Amino acid sequence: MGFEDRRDAGRQLAARLAYLRDEDAVVVGLPNGGVPVAYEVARELNAPMDVIVVRKLGVPYQPELAFGALGEGGIRVVDAAVLASTRLDRAETESVERRERRELVQRADRLRQARPQVSLSGRTIVVVDDGIATGATARAACQVAWAHGAQRVVLAVPVAPRNTAALLRDVADEVVCLQVPTLLGAVGGWYRRFDHVTDSEVERLLRAAARQLDLFEPPGDDPPRREEEVVVPIRGGRLAGHLTVPEDPLGLVVFAHGSGSSRHSPRNRFVGDVLGRAGLATLLMDLLTGDEENTRARVFDIELLARRLVEVTHWVTAREDLASLRLGYFGASTGAAAALRAATDPGVVITTVVSRGGRPDLTGAALEAVRMPTLLIVGGNDQQVLELNRWAARQIPGDTELAVVPGATHLFAEPGTLERVAELARDWLVAHLSSVPAHRGGPGAHGGADR
User: Fold this and answer.
1) Over the stretch 86-142, which tens digit does the pLDDT of each residue have?
2) Which three-class secondary structure state does DSSP give residue 226?
3) Which of 148, 146, 128 is nearest to 138 (CA)?
4) Dihedrals φ, ψ of 359, to 5°?
5) φ, ψ for residue 322, nearest 5 deg
6) How many Cβ atoms sit within 10 Å of the Cβ of residue 280?
7) CA 401 remoteness from chain centre
8) Lowest mean pLDDT among 327-336, 337-346, 428-437
9) Which helix (H) or strand (E) holds 276?
10) Distance (Å, rounded) from C-alpha 215 to C-alpha 42?
């Protein structure tokens, strides 16, 4: 039994660690692969997330054998027994330390642009990685956590060799591991998808985790926001929309409504309000003119709707107050098909797409060109659409997740189901749009996911 990807592994690990929810815990991921796993754990525990930047000090002629570790804040941990057994002289150890210190400082400087270091002193520290092979890096991370004043250290990983996991109990109060095979092989072999995690992805998740923690705070007054009825000129007419921009927005989500709906849709306005409280700007657009809405053929003309959505996106990126924001699409029903098709247009840069009860089967051949992260939300009792989305999830080559809301039908009218849709969309969009502003290129620059 393995894991679909790091998000799946993180969620499974988070369920095992739920007993830590009431503790004063900090979740620290090991860059880079451990950070997506740590993000899911931190979200479940409602805990701050950080990275613990360490550099293993490897024996020159046997790099996998560590004689110590370096950490931020001048932390230096040395294993006297290894030093004695290897008989390294001072010049050799200092050479290794100088090299690794340079690497550590450069790495930490880059990652700390996303978030200042969280204090570990006197707290329970949950050290998370995507898997353990030799255990040297995990051992170093635990030692660094102790050196920073941790009161308790829990090492948590999805998979590790049985013997290695047992040996690590000398540096952690607890070792929590979901899979403990006798023979590990490669860590990546335990994942169906084991993509490279970039520094940009780590920075994005750190920002998203900080924002996510804010969402758990007791609700107060809604954050200040600017609302504006807009008119977007298009070829042959004008489209109406409603723009909402909070202070210091994380990104902008453009809504594409389903057949028979409009910018006044109570369902999409509800979702838009939830996104706004999370710091996202929203643009709810009518993609048809008043006359066109009365023509049934136009309502199901996905090519036309996608073309209009691209025109709206060009209008957004031409506005000085919106041009720097990363963009996502939220499509419902037939609007989801239009959003997926528009997202592949070479003239726009779309970071992510969310579909609610969508009809991705109507996207046509463009479905196989969708390479940005995509979330498909479907009601558990909307059987026909659920099967269509299961099929689509297999066709989309980009990072795709299918989220099923139990007991929900197509319109998510059942109690609590629309709220769940809003939560899923919020978490996904905050995670994918919380990053440095995207550089907007011209045609050919699409596919703005940092993966």
Assistant:
1) 888 888 888 988 988 888 888 887 777 656 678 888 889 999 999 998 788 888 899
2) strand
3) 128
4) -115, 70
5) -120, -15
6) 28
7) 11
8) 428-437
9) helix 266-277
10) 13
C-alpha–C-alpha distance, residues 231 and 239, integer Å = 6
Using the predicted structure, report yes or no on whether residue 430 has a pLDDT greater than 60.
yes
> What is the rounded distance in angstroms from the CA atom of residue 126 to the CA atom of residue 47?
10
> In one letter, which amino acid is 207?
R
Can you tell me the distance from the alpha carbon of 150 to that of 125, in angstroms, rounded to the nearest whole number? 6
Q: H or E segment at 56?
A: strand 54-59
| Segment 179-213, tens digit of pLDDT | 999 888 888 999 999 988 888 788 888 888 876 66
Cα angle 20-31-175, degrees, rounded to a multiple of 5: 35
CA 181 to chain centre: 28
DSSP letters for 91-105: HHHHHHHHHHHHHHH
For 118-137, letters b (16+ CB in 10 Å) and e give bebeebbbbbbbbbbbebbb
Closest of 380, 258, 227, 434 to residue 330, by C-alpha: 258
Helix axes 334-343, 302-318, angle to 10 degrees: 60
Provide the whole-model pTM: 0.53
Size of the chain in residues: 451
Strand stretches in 213-349, DSSP E = 225-234, 237-246, 252-256, 281-285, 327-332
In degrees to the nearest 10, what's the CA dihedral of 363, 366, 372, 377? 20
Answer for the pair 131, 6: CB distance below 8 angstroms, yes or no. Answer: no
